[in-house]
Structure formats: structure tokens, C-alpha cells
Amino acid sequence: METKANNAFLKFIGTAGARFVVMKQLRASGGLWMSIEKTNLSIDPGPGALVRCLSSKPKLDPSTLDAILLTHRHLDHSGDVNVMIEAVTGGGFKKRGVLFAPEDALENDPVVLRYLRDSLQKIEILRENTTYHVGDISFSTAKKLHHPGETYGFNFHLSSCTVSLITDTRFFPELPRVYNGEVLVINVVRLNPIGDDPIDHLSVEDVKTIIRSAKPRLTVLTHFGMTMMKAKPWKVAQALEEETGVRVIAATDGMKLDLEGG
Ligand SMILES: [Zn+2]
């Protein structure tokens, strides 16, 4: 008899975005943990990821991770990547785990220490429009996002749904079409429209445009900058939900999103 997966969730280890919310730890900054059946991923393990995973209830043990995914090299997304690699590889003694990262996270001024790399089973370099597999999970990239450094969002193709993750980026017209999963997790750093500011992040207005076009079943806002924090993310989410007619919630540190039930 076929048994349905009973372990499929996304946990928000941290919901801080950009420098000030991270450095003041107004929100935690450990990125995301995804578990699908027996496969565990850490996505963008920013500063504090190791501590936050281990102190999470129930505990999430980084030594059980199958892979670490970096959307890009910025510190708020990669601060704990090296210590997480040590955890995955049993301090470097067990050759295991896969790291998925853009090429510029590994080259000049790398965020992944070279001496740790051989202990990983594999390092896969992220490219545009490519599908990757790790254990029970497959995910794909789309076009590069518009953000300093090489940056990728992900579409996770799960049996119950597709989960799209739009990380740091400036808005561009193809965004809603290439990240059109039923569940949309989106980094919204800015409250007010970006306009001509030299800031490659999404604003609430951009998120509204994306929701109206991509029509996800559920949108989860995360990675909040200072202006979002001051506006109270849950209030922003409620207003977005009223305006778009689509379910919108604001992530909180430690929030677990069940991915079962389609
Ligand atoms: Zn960034």
C-alpha cells in the first residue's frame, strides 16, 4: 500500500532581511529549512542558522542535512554556510552532503571556505533554467535574478505542490511567470516602491504585482528590512490579502509551513 508522505514542511529559521534587521537581530537570520520525506535542506543559512536550528523545537539537527542551497553570496544568506558544512560532514570526517551555490560564491572572495569543500560529497554550481535533484526533492532555477552578484530563485517541485522561492531581486516583468508555484515564498525587504533608488530589492507594490499575475494559492512574505518591520509585516500581509484576494501571511521566526494537503 502506498503511504503518503507525512513529513513535508518548510520552517522559517529566520525572517530578517538586509543589514540592519540582521545586525541588530530584530529578527533571526538563519534562512529556511525544508524537509520532504527523508530529505532535509538548508536554504540560505545566514548568521545564527546553526544555533537556531539546534534550539528549534523540535530540534532540527544540521548533521541530518542532505544539502545546503545558497541563492547568492550575501552575508545575510551565507553567514553560517561554513559551520553548516562542518555539521553536515561530521566536522569534515564524513564525506557527505551537497552544496548548491552560484559560481561567484565559490570563486574570488569566496563565501565557502576552500578547506571545507573536499569533505562535501558534491558541489553543484547553479545555472539558469536548470533542474537539480537531491534525495526526494527536485528543484529548478529560472533566469538570474536582478541583484548584485549571481542570484537565483528556486521552484521546488513537490508531490503536493510547487513552492516558488523568490529571493533578493529587483522587480522585472518575467518574475511572476517564472516563479508561479502554488505556494510563493517571497523576500520583501522594502515597504515603499523602489522607484529609481539603486536598491535591488522587492517592495510591497512589486509583491502585489507578482501576486496578481502569478496567482499563488498562498503567499508567504519573509526577509524583512527595517521599513517592513516598522510597518509590522502581519499588517502588510493582511492589507495585501484584502487587495489581492489571495491568502497572504507574514512569516515569523520559527514558523512551520506544512506542505502537505495540496
Ligand atoms: Zn542579497
Layout of secondary structure:
Elements: E1 8-12, H1 18-23, E2 32-36, E3 39-43, H2 49-54, E4 67-69, H3 75-78, H4 81-88, E5 98-101, H5 114-117, E6 122-125, E7 131-134, E8 137-140, E9 154-157, E10 162-166, H6 175-178, E11 183-187, H7 204-214, E12 218-222, H8 226-231, H9 233-244, E13 247-250, E14 256-258
Parallel strand pairs: 3-4, 4-5, 5-6, 10-11, 11-12, 12-13
Antiparallel strand pairs: 1-2, 1-14, 2-3, 7-8, 8-9, 9-10
The chain binds zinc ion.
Keyword list:
262 residues, binds zinc ion, disordered N terminus, alpha/beta
Outline the structure in words.
With 262 residues, the protein is an alpha/beta fold. Helix content is 23%, strand content 23%. It is built from nine helices and 14 strands. The strands form two sheets. Strands 6-5-4-3-2-1-14 form a seven-stranded mixed β-sheet, with helices on one face. Helix 6 links the parallel strand 10 (162-166) and strand 11 (183-187). Helix 7 runs parallel beside helix 9 (233-244). The radius of gyration is 17 Å and the shape is globular. The two termini are 20 Å apart. The structure holds zinc ion (ZN).
